[in-house]
């Protein structure tokens, strides 16, 4: 794809593969037993889930959210802290730069677009996606979270993690639908999966003291076990909420844009902090690191407001609401 160095990637992929990727993945097929495929591997690929027009629509909607956000930021006393939860997360290392250089290149993520943008409010109910997620999760499904991951040139890795370390839903009937808007490979930070890592619960995660909810796996997978998922625009990666994944830094000169929707069964419940229940699941044999005190399963601070942020559903997309669920 780019011919650039990709030495930052932890998998064993030696050469950029681009269009001619030799990797094969479990793949969704109309009318096949996709539920068994998902249950076995913890993820699958859907080729051409969305059309070229829908890809352009999504890119346009992202640009318009970014422009609106910067206008608001420039014309009011809004601060990044204030807006972070609802709109965007700027690249920390680009924060000092003048946003007018290129607003979109300074944005790493957009959050909760389905709540404040009409295009994404419709898009999360895309009939093909709803049909697929109800096949996997059952008839009652909520959109838990919408995100755009813009991965600009120079942006860093997203460390290994399981999404249910953030959501903490039980049962773990939760999945991500990650749709590429640009070609993705190891050089620009494609998704990397640890196949079959779902089904045994959430493994121990830790977080840096500077960002106590930026959870990542304590034990990093071995490179030989890791699968880089090389995708074309419009392809989707559907993965279980407990399937461990990571993206390496983007070492190319161009963005790697994607949109990601997390869906969960309306029957899921948020788990409490195990400490509140008098339980501790953290492996007692792990060394305690004063720089990383916030083990997922044994958080001394609890930090409940942040945890709840990741468990607040955005939209009911199919079936019924349930009282006392994860909203
Ligand atoms: O797209 C990325 O770079 C990472 C996405 C991801 O793993 C996440 O948001 O949980």
TrEMBL record:
Cofactor field: Fe cation
Region (Disordered): 1-25, 270-293
One Gene Ontology term of the molecular function aspect: oxidoreductase activity
Entry protein name: Fe2OG dioxygenase domain-containing protein
Signal peptide annotation: none
InterPro entries per record: Phytyl_CoA_dOase-like
């Amino acid at each position: 794809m780019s011919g650039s160095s990709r030495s930052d990637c932890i998998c064993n992929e030696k050469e950029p593969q681009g269009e001619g990727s030799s990797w094969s993945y479990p793949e969704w097929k109309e009318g096949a037993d996709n539920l068994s495929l998902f249950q076995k591997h913890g993820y699958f690929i859907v080729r051409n889930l969305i059309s070229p027009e829908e890809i352009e629509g999504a890119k346009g909607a992202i640009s318009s959210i970014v422009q609106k956000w910067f206008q608001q930021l420039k014309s009011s006393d809004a601060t990044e802290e204030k807006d972070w939860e609802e709109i965007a997360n700027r690249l920390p290392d680009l924060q000092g730069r003048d946003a007018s250089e290129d607003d979109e290149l300074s944005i790493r993520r957009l959050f909760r677009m389905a709540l404040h943008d009409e295009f994404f409010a419709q898009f999360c109910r895309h009939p093909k996606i709803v049909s697929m997620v109800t096949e996997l999760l059952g008839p009652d499904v909520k959109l838990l979270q919408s995100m755009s991951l813009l991965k600009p040139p120079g942006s860093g890795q997203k460390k290994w993690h399981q999404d249910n370390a953030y959501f903490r839903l039980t049962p773990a009937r939760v999945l991500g639908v990650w749709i590429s808007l640009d070609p993705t490979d190891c050089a620009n930070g494609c998704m990397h999966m640890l196949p079959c890592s779902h089904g045994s619960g959430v493994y121990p995660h830790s977080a840096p003291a500077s960002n106590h909810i930026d959870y990542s796996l304590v034990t990093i997978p071995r490179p030989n076990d890791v699968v880089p998922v090389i995708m074309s625009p419009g392809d989707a990666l559907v993965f279980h909420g407990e399937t461990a994944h990571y993206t390496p830094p983007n070492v190319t000169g161009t963005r790697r844009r994607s949109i990601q929707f997390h869906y969960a069964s309306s029957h899921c419940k948020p788990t409490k902090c195990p400490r509140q229940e008098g339980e501790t699941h953290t492996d007692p044999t792990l060394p305690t690191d004063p720089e990383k005190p916030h083990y997922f399963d044994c958080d001394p601070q609890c930090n409940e407001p942040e945890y709840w942020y990741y468990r607040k559903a955005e939209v009911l997309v199919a079936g019924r609401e349930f009282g006392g669920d994860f909203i």
